[in-house]
Amino acid sequence: MAYNPGSDVIEVVRHPAKGAAASTFRVFGETLRGMKTTLARVVEGPVTIQYPEEKTPVYPRFRGRHKLHRFEDSGLEKCVGCSLCAAACPSDCIRVVAAENTPDNRVSAGERYAAVYEINLSRCIFCGYCEVACPFDAITMGHDYEMSDYTRSDLIFTKEMLLAEPLERTPLRAEGE
Amino acid sequence: MIGLANIDYFEPWWMQIAKALVIFGVIFGVLPILTVYERKLLGRFQHRYGPNRVGPFGLMQPLAEIVKFALKEPFRPRTSMGFLFRLAPAISIMTAVGGLALIPWGNVQDIFGTRTGLYGIDVSVGPLYVFALGGISFYGIVLGGWASGSKYSFLGAMRAAAQLISYEVSQGLALVGVLISAQTLSLTGIVNAQRGMWYFIPQIVGFLIFMVASFAETNRAPFDLVEADGELGGGYFTEYGGTGFVAYLFAEYVNMLVVSGMAATLFLGGWLLPFGIHPPGWVDPFVVLAKMMIFMTLFIWIRATLPRLRYDQLMSFGWKILLPLATVNLLVTAIVVVH
Fold first, then answer.
1. Does residue A2 fall inside a structural domain?
2. A44–B47 C-beta distance less than 8 A
3. Is A124 part of a structural domain of the chain?
4. DSSP code of B110?
5. What is the distance between the alpha carbons of residues B33 and A64, in angstroms, rounded to a whole number?
6. pLDDT in tens, chain A (177 residues)
């Protein structure tokens, strides 16, 4: 007994079969329509961003390369070497070695300071957990994303490099842009 | 003795050599610019810029590419046939360049006190000569695909054999309407016959058939099944690299130029300008070049628009639609002309 699917089957609706002449005419019209579509793309102009010359502006909360900060008034480092950033780092790319501040060698505002502060940017995943973990806002994520280098060792950023005033190479997106 | 064709050589021999050199030089100066033009225009059609890094506006791109191709190692597959493998691109490019001689760039002018026709040769069998060269140029493609000893190349060559031959029929028949109207086979004669009205208007059906068949003849999209980079990895020139590849590429572009020149000559009035404008004689080649550029732009525009046809669609379109249309067009033209 043949299978009867009943009346619930999907019916495919096809346009009536057309002759060669009608098909040719239709294809011709569709071709012209397609050509109009592509020409409209020429009129609109390219949307490419010519990267090295022009850059996409980043949003204010964009997580680029890290920065270490100083107090603006006293010039002391904000980092007290607590290693909370290193503990929070999921890719384990921050290395902090703390040392005691002494009266004649005062580096940070707290008791201790970071004698060594290194971030291995070839491991960093730019998650921003270090920024969240820091109790003193000593480390923040900047906007710089152009960090290519020729050797891996050049990607280990030391404290001096992170503290230095960064070259603002990335445009910031304006309000409402 | 009756010659095969009547060729009016009224220039001195040095003028003929000079003409050949100038035509060759100009075309091979235009060609690299044309490749950049195509890629830049294709880019515009896709919301991007196209090559713009090498030199001003990317105009030095072909130079960089030629250097790159010339420095490639000339290798060939172990299964290929050496002599034929090297001969095939040469056939392709020679037949393509041979077609250039036919394009009339202008009327007979007075240059340095010498009567000179602004064309390579003006044979009494003009379009037939072009079709003959086109027929030989199939050998370049089919031999290249076959001698490569590769499946992809062979498939491309098979497609080329079928496609080029079936579309050449329609292309030829579409032309006959023009030839009947002009009552001559000489290309300069055809241009001069268009002084009243360009054949583009009375022969609009023939013009459209000719253009569609020309797209198929030059292996351009949407009829680029012969190359079909997505399915055959390049078709008949899959195994070619370096200079062999460049030869095929140049042959394709020269073929496009020749077809554009033929279309401009046969349907758009060659060097004639509309509205009774009669510029001095030296303007004529630029008029022809401008008309050719219109067709080149059309080639690129179509390439940016239409997807590739399926093989059975290609065949049924060629034989079931184009060929009957061309035949009817020819019949109607013949009846109109006779009456």
1. no
2. yes
3. yes
4. E
5. 42
6. 577 766 666 667 666 566 766 777 777 888 888 889 889 888 988 888 888 888 888 888 889 889 899 888 888 889 998 999 999 999 999 999 999 988 888 888 888 999 999 999 999 999 999 999 999 889 999 888 888 889 998 899 998 888 887 777 777 777 666
pTM for this model (two decimals): 0.79
In a shared domain, residues A131 and A70 = yes
Domain ranges of chain B: 13-338
How many domains would you assign to chain A?
Answer: 2
> Residue B223's closest CA among B318, B146, B92, B147?
B318
Q: A48, B302: Cβ pair inside 8 Å?
A: no
Compute the distance between CA of residue B260 and CA of residue B295 in angstroms, rounded to an integer: 6
Q: Residue B304: its chain A contacts at CB < 8 A?
A: 38
Nearest to B305 among A38, A45, A46 (CB): A38
Is ipTM beyond 0.85? no
Those residues with Cβ within 8 angstroms of residue B175's Cβ, 6 or more apart along the chain or in another chain: B127, B206, B210, B266
- In this complex, the residue of B45, B321, B325 whose CB is nearest that of residue A38 is B45
Domain that holds residue A37: 15-47
| Mutate: best of A35, A50, A53, partner B, most B CBs <10 A | A35
Residue A124 shares a structural domain with residue A151: yes
